[in-house]
């Protein structure tokens, strides 16, 4: 394989990758602070893989405390070309049952207290988000999920809520009326930050439960955990199938150079702090010596 280095962000229940050759847990320093955990690197079917458990091993970081900027930054620093996120979600769609999976195509972002950009005062950028996932990687992930034997839906619309509490029934029914299919607490601002980092992003959603609109009952964490363990095994099989079936060459993606049309600030006015913090993200433009 040439050109691919797949970053995997593992969601609830997915804390490691089976079958990696030359596995090494690497602690990577980020100017954005501490990522959720060290990154497990290695090769899977000849493909370089960098796996980051989103909540840390043992599930110690809650969704509203994730340092998403650091998580995306360390994957960029490790040379990832693409990112596949795996997330546990609730279902807002009667056709999408617990145990099923969905490929996400759109997001509605209802988070409110999370840093959502790499670009602050001193470096302004506006990346396009009309189509927030990479169609190529999403299609490859969908094929891999089917090969792993999952019941797959999509493209699904994902409602990102702040958490860590689950929805009220009124909220759940409102989101359903908006046409949302699944609900979770982690995909935003993750997808936005991946786009700013010029990383094609896809999301494979593991459906663990029906949200509380469904039967008048509360979301049951014990039931979620039971489904989650079965889903995690299928997710690992899908990741293996993805690596096994990637094209031999990675064609360039428009997302690889999205900052060329997104950065607005005059380069002569870039802030020193922004240049330091975004060294890895801007390495393509500034030269590799600035990205490490």
Descriptors for this entry?
single chain; 292 residues; alpha/beta; Rossmann fold; five-stranded mixed beta barrel
Quick one: biggest sheet? 5 strands, mixed, barrel
- SS field, number of helical segments: 7
Distance between the termini: 24 Å
Spatial strand arrangement across the major sheet: 5-8-7-6-9
Strand content: 15-25%
Helical residue percent band: 25-40%
**Apparent shape:** globular
| Uncertain ranges | none
Query: What is the helix/strand order?
Result: EEEEHEEHEHEHEHHH
Sheet/helix structural class = alpha/beta
- CATH level 1 class label: Alpha Beta
Tell me how many strands there are: 9
Radius of gyration: 18 Å
Domain module count: 1
CATH superfamily: Nucleoside phosphorylase domain
Q: Write the CATH architecture name.
A: 3-Layer(aba) Sandwich
For this structure, the CATH topology is Rossmann fold
Mean pLDDT: 93
